[in-house]
Amino acid sequence: PSDYQGWAYGLKKAGYATNVRYPQILIKLIKGYNLQQYTLIAMGKMKPEEEVVLNMPGLPPAGQVVVEGKVDSGVADRPAVTDPAAAAAYPVGEFTINKTRVVYVKAGVSLLAVAGQYDVPLPRLLEFNDMKEEDVLVKGQLVYLQRKRRTGANEYHVMRDGESLYDVSQAEGIRLEDMLEMNQLTPGERPAPGERIYLQGSAPSRPRLL
What does the alpha-carbon distance between residue 22 and residue 17 come to, in Å, rounded to a whole number? Predict the structure, then answer.
């Protein structure tokens, strides 16, 4: 029970994690925050009053999060989002967009924790959200709990300044690959602000790009 390094590599071997560096990341966090002491306390091998809070160089202090490369000394679950109003725009907990289950997840939250909370396998969660390998979200965003729809609830979406096609697919609850095909676009292209991205059928023409 006290061999946390063995458990970290065992979890990876069992296929629990998709990130090839899962054991190293987990072990670094356990060492950096001295988390193994809580196992010892639970096993009666250490007294609670002997707890020592440590921070490893390169990790933010306990109770703090990193926002855009800087330590945020405010509330630990404070979101870092492109649009400051984004978090307030969505309800707390599970809701639906385009008849698809979704939650708004704040910056600094582990997708592994989200997958566990909503009983969705992590590989499926990544697939539903057009992600490859993610550990902790660097900014707040919508995270879908089931596969997004092939078409949107709205006829089109008007691009805003600084918005990406991925942002649109998440905001509208539509699969990124289907949206790209409808609009004659390829991954990585960035339509100009004000351009229409069609969500229910083929666009009359390709949108103007930046």
Answer: 6
